[in-house]
Amino acid sequence: MKVFDQNMLMLVLVLSFLCNFSRLHGADPTDGFTNIPLTEANFKIQRPYNLPVEARYSFENGVRRMWVYANDKSHSPNSQTQPRTEVRIMGHDYSSGVWQFEGYGFVPNGTTGPSVVQIHGATHESSTIILRIYDGELRYYSGDLIASNMYDKWFKVNLIHDVDEGKVTVFIDNEQKFETKDRGPGDLYFKCGVYAAPKNISYYMESRWRDIKIYKK
Prior knowledge:
- The structure is a single chain.
- By secondary structure, the protein is mainly beta.
- It has two domains: 31 residues; 185 residues, Jelly Rolls, CATH 2.60.120.
- 11% of the residues lie in helices and 45% in strands.
- The protein contains one helix and 15 strands, in the order αβββββββββββββββ.
- Strands 1, 3, 4, 6, 11, 12, 13 and 15 form an eight-stranded antiparallel beta sheet that branches. A seven-stranded antiparallel beta sheet has the order 2-5-14-7-8-9-10, with no helix packed on it.
- Strand 8 and strand 9 form a beta hairpin.
- The longest helix has 23 residues.
């Protein structure tokens, strides 16, 4: 009987390990989600208000390239925010449920300080989560380190926002890297590109994105 109990305990431990390993290392974060079809109408480009779109954005061979300079204007003449060139996902704002952003990002060496992907909106803040690049490190705002050595390579990003549970999970290249509480419900939507931080930024900032998808449960 003791041998049977020991074997059962070992089996439970092995299964638990395999489950956790799969969740953290290589599991598809989109399992159980439904893909939402996107068209070009869902991609709104925010850029310095005094410039044409093509001065800060290109879309070639499936790659959306966005760049901005530290002394550029904001996206609106009435805005006091930092300069940006971002894709704002339109038509799929949300305030409840479980939603997910997926995309492949690329940040060239030398870009430092901008947000490259975010969930905009919260109860008392302007954003739920922002991922910024500082000297090749991907960080939660300017704090917690999420991933290192991110320059000059394509990396896959999955942001999962469970609004009802108040939780945001970050996957990089199918590995769970970070989890945090959100900042309360609101009018929520996804953005990616380059949005300068208030300080410690490079003069030139750029990121590229491809294969952007939105999922929900």
